[in-house]
Amino acid sequence: MQLMRGKFITLEGGEGTGKSTQARRLAAHLRTRGLSVLETREPGGSAGAEAVRHVLLSGAAQPFGSEAEALLFAAARADHMDETIRPALEAGHYVICDRFIDSSRVYQGAVGQVDAELLDALEAVAIGEDLPDLTLVLDVPTELGLSRAEARGKADRFEREGLAFHEAVRTAFLALAENSSRHVVIDARGSVEDVTQRMIATVEARLFPAMPARPMLQEGQAHE
Ligand code: TMP
Question: Is any atom of ligand 1 closer than 6 Å to the C-beta of 109?
C-alpha cells in the first residue's frame, strides 16, 4: 500500500518571535487530529547537523564570512533532510521544523549579502524538490523580539548582532512572504494562546479546507 506523504510545515521569523513554543503547540494541535507529527529544528535535527549547529551558533565560523556560514548551514540542512525530514514525510508523518531555508535566504542572503545564485544552488543540493508545503512567518516588532530573546539569557552569534541587523532580518522575512503562496505572516504579538489560535486558523484553512477539526470532546461527553 502506498503511504500518503506527510505535510511539511516550517516556522520562520526573527529572534524572540516565539517559534519554538509555537512549534510545540502547533504539533499538539495536529496530534488532536490523529496525525503523527515530528518536531525538529535548524540548524540541527540530525546527529551531523547538531554537530554543525555548535560551530555556527558559537560564532566559530563567523571569521570565515557569510558565504562560509551559508555553506555550513546548507551542509547541516542536507544531512537533516536526508536523515530526518524526508524519511518522516515518506512514512506519512507531518513535519514541523523551527527554521529552514528561509532563514538562510534572510540571514545569509538578504542581510549577509551572499549571492542569490549561490544560495539557490546550495538549496537545490540540500533539499532537492522538498520545499515546505506551508511556511508561517512569525512577526513581532524588532525591539519586542530582542527583549524576549534577551530574557532567555546567553546570546548566540546572531543574537549578539545589533538592532539594525535585526530590523533588516524582519524586513527581509516580510519581503519574502510578499507575493508568495507558500508563506503566511502571523502576527506574533499578544498572548501565547492568541498566537497559537492565529496559527491554527491558518493551518486549518490551508491544509484541511474540507475537513474542519472536530472540537475536543469533554470528559463524559459521548461520541455521536
Ligand atoms: P535559534 O535556534 O535560536 O533559532 O537560532 C538559530 C540562529 O541561526 C538564528 O539566529 C538564525 C540563524 N540561522 C541562520 O542564520 N541561517 C539558517 O539557515 C538557519 C537555519 C538559522
Answer: no
For residue 145, CA distances in Å to 51, 141, 149, 152, 185 come to: 27, 6, 6, 11, 15
Burial class (CB in 10 A: 0-12, 13-18, 19+), 82: middle
Average pLDDT over residues 141-170: 94
Instruction: Label residues 93-116 b or e (16+ Cβ within 10 Å = b).
Output: bbbbbbbbbbbbbbbbbbbbebee
Report the DSSP pairing between strands 134-139 and 37-41. unpaired
Domains of the chain: 8-207 (3.40.50.300)
Instruction: Say which residues have a Cβ less than 8 Å from residue 164's Cβ, sequence separation at least 6.
Output: none
The reply to whether ligand 1 has any atom less than 6 angstroms from the CB of 103 is yes
Residues 151-163 have a mean pLDDT of: 92
Q: Under the phi-then-psi rule, with left for phi > 0, alpha for psi from -120 to 50, and beta for the rest, what region is 153?
A: left
Kindly report the pTM of this predicted structure.
0.93
**Confidence label for 189 from pLDDT (cuts 50, 70 and 90):** very high
| The residue to which cell 544531512 is assigned | 79
Instruction: For residues 122 and 147, give the distance between their C-alpha atoms in angstroms, rounded to a whole number.
Output: 33
Coil, helix or strand at residue 185: strand
CA distance 134 to 218: 31
* Atom 15 of ligand 1: nearest residue by CA position: 107
Evaluate: CB of 84 within 6 angstroms of ligand 1. no
Note whether 15 and 43 are within 8 A (CB): no
Q: What percentage of the chain has pLDDT greater than the value 90?
A: 89
